[in-house]
């Protein structure tokens, strides 16, 4: 469960950092071209990130219901790691598509590890 906890926290923090870096470097053109769509997308991304961080912390603390929260947060991560690469594939940025594939595989590994304990 230690891997799942560390991975969950790492990905949650990484998601928040990636979006903040993109925002402050003015790399989110959808803020002006599609403000409502990106606002909903960002809400989903930040909720996912926060839940991943909280679930990871709770797994370390072996708190009651930590596994349930982890399953929800990781389910949200699985969704975003399947949907989000489409944006980058459309742009031909294959490194980001590959990164999402790795995120997906490691998330599945974490789910498997947690479910076996």
Task: Record keyword descriptors for this entry.
mainly alpha, 117 residues, globular, single chain
Provide a descriptive summary of the structure in words.
- By secondary structure, this protein is an all-alpha fold.
- It has one domain.
- 86% of the residues lie in helices and 0% in strands.
- It has 6 helices and no strands.
- Helix 1 (2-24) packs antiparallel against helix 3 (35-60).
- It is globular and about 45 Å long.
- The protein starts with a helix and ends with a helix.
- The model has no long low-confidence stretch (mean pLDDT 95).
Topology:
Elements: H1 2-24, H2 30-33, H3 35-60, H4 66-83, H5 85-91, H6 94-116
Helix pairs in contact: 1-3, 1-6, 3-4, 4-6, 5-6
Helix/strand-derived category reads: mainly alpha
- Mean pLDDT comes to 95
What is the helix tally?
Answer: 6
User: How many strands?
Assistant: 0
- The amount of helix comes to over 70%
The shape, in one word, is globular
Helix and strand sequence = HHHHHH
How many domain units? 1
Oligomer: single chain
User: How many angstroms does the end-to-end distance come to?
Assistant: 7 Å
Poorly predicted segments: none
What's the alpha carbon Rg, rounded to whole Å? Answer: 15 Å
Largest sheet, strands/sense/barrel = none
Could you tell me the strand content as a percent range? under 5%
Quick summary of this structure?
The chain is mainly α.
């Amino acid at each position: 469960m230690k891997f799942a906890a560390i991975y969950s926290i790492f990905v949650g923090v990484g998601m928040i950092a990636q979006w903040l870096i993109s925002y402050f470097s003015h790399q989110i053109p959808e803020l002006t071209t599609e403000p409502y769509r990106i606002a909903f997308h960002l809400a989903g991304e930040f909720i996912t990130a926060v839940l991943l961080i909280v679930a990871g912390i709770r797994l370390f603390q072996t708190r009651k219901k930590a596994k349930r929260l982890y399953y929800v947060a990781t389910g949200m991560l699985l969704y975003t790691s399947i949907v989000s690469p489409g944006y980058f594939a459309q742009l031909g940025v294959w490194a980001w598509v590959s990164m999402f594939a790795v995120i997906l595989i490691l998330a599945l590994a974490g789910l498997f590890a947690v479910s076996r304990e």
